[in-house]
């Protein structure tokens, strides 16, 4: 029996005792009444009756415990040429003052604050300041357009929005202020005020009466103490793509989240207080929430926050430079970042210029890592490469390798084995557990472990219908795959319309809604086709209204611009093609999966349900153009 089997078995034998032991690692203001109360929420809630403050556990207790002078956050920004280190004490001072500034704007426990920020330290500081006040933050990724921000403002109804004058992308300054103003204009809800961080690369005009300068407000504020919150109170809402145009606001609680993340640092990544850890992601995504901000700080680590890209800032050695310079022990990133480096530096010539002796492992997440990339990374790094599978909804890994128990043998293409806390199985479409080795709907037997989103923001019913009602007693992940005879899990792709573009989660359904709103489009389908760099990229196929005879190139350019304007550059939507008809079943359903396979170059047998087999040839011709 392996150490993993023993740990997993110990959790199975006594799930509540197992998590209770983990919870002892944190500082509680009031101990929980019950470890798990099955009568609360959609399927129960963790640490009911307990009280704590997440910011206190991330910062103040480390200062009190003697880590005040240790680096908490290293901000490394090749985009600006700047490097700044914040000790735990520095972070405490800044977060307490920013919490004071938010309180001066009327923010109190339970109020929502939206952060629309680039990768600057003030993004993490703003998140932690909200946690300090017991306010609920909602970070919106900077690559989303004004309309996407507007839907989140309308849903979260923030009292304050924290933003910056600009973000920096290679070769381009992204001016946030016009996007923010447009979003507030579009939204039915208006915030009382905005806190704007002026960046010297492109300062902006502040709107009188509404906007306040971030640093001036921080300087003028008195430090604010940590406010006790219930373990079951929300810490944040993070919107993610759902199967319709309306994004889902995944709620994260305070207690379960802190316990799960604190525990994961050692169990999964094998790092502890004092170690340097780097999640090369963005605070706008769940990986950034959990592993740039909360987990490393909860554990007393030094977290690296990187404003740059894997390539081009300045070259394909950027990641290796950061690891060597800050003595990073574990790096977490998306496979697409490795593919970008591999494309530009297949032989690892840049890597040879750096001392990577501090690095002990590379973890990958956000999309399935294709085996050639995993093998390449392991060969050039000569360190373990661990693919781990998770989702915005879960907040931490469902399956992984575990450095605390000894890593499993390298198995490229597999996402590892279930983390203690998850009873994972593949189910058939009727909800029956499939034998090992058979693919189906990957699902977790309820309850979900601590850290997983207990509901959707003000939408309990949406939570039930999205995740719980298809297979009663189970959480449906929306991913297809199998658990093999050895217990290794293979995640093969989504069962819905979600695609992963460069590790960014997007809904093809919401892109279809945008295309369908174009005046010349009668109907459309968007599919995610295989892409060498980004894993998948969207392709739009449109059927024009009869009588429209404008040039295809003109309409296509308009459609590309429309998606960029409504969803944002992050959609990477660059390909819209006109087709005479779309392949459908006799009941009128568009055969998107079939179109996707044709786009990926597969030979597809004509489905028996198809209305008109000819359309497959027509679509194939357009896709092969
Ligand atoms: N703000 C504004 N725009 C942004 C943005 C942000 N925070 N992030 C991305 N964009 C823009 C990019 O500038 C690009 O715009 P363009 O169409 O004008 O070129 C567009 O969105 C698409 O971005 P992306 O898909 O990221 O492609 P890229 O070509 O800029 O970079 C990679 C490719 C692989 C280098 C990059 O995607 C990467 O580093 N990926 C890592 C992904 C990651 O961290 N995922 C998080 C989950 S772990
Ligand atoms: P997000 O919510 O943005 O983290 O995206 C979650 C989705 O990304 C999952 O449901 C999977 O489809 C996919 N995903 C994330 N990590 C992995 C992985 N390691 N292997 C396979 N798919 C993954």
Labels describing this entry:
625 residues; GMP Synthetase, Chain A, domain 3; 7-stranded mixed β-sheet; 24% strand; binds coenzyme A; binds adenosine monophosphate
In short:
This protein is of the alpha/beta class. The protein has 18 helices and 31 strands.
Structural write-up:
This protein has 625 residues and is α/β, with parallel strands linked by helices. It has two domains: 3-308 and 388-482, Rossmann fold (3-Layer(aba) Sandwich), CATH 3.40.50.12780; 502-623, GMP Synthetase, Chain A, domain 3. The chain has 18 helices and 31 strands. Strands 5-4-17-16-18-19-20 form a seven-stranded mixed sheet, sandwiched between helices. A five-stranded parallel sheet has the order 7-6-8-11-12, sandwiched between helices. It has a four-stranded antiparallel sheet with strand order 23-24-25-26. Strand 16 (276-279), helix 10 (286-299) and strand 17 (302-306) form a beta-alpha-beta unit. The chain starts with a helix and ends with a helix. The model has no long low-confidence stretch (mean pLDDT 97). Bound molecules: coenzyme A and adenosine monophosphate. The site of adenosine monophosphate has 20 residues, from strand 25 and strand 26.
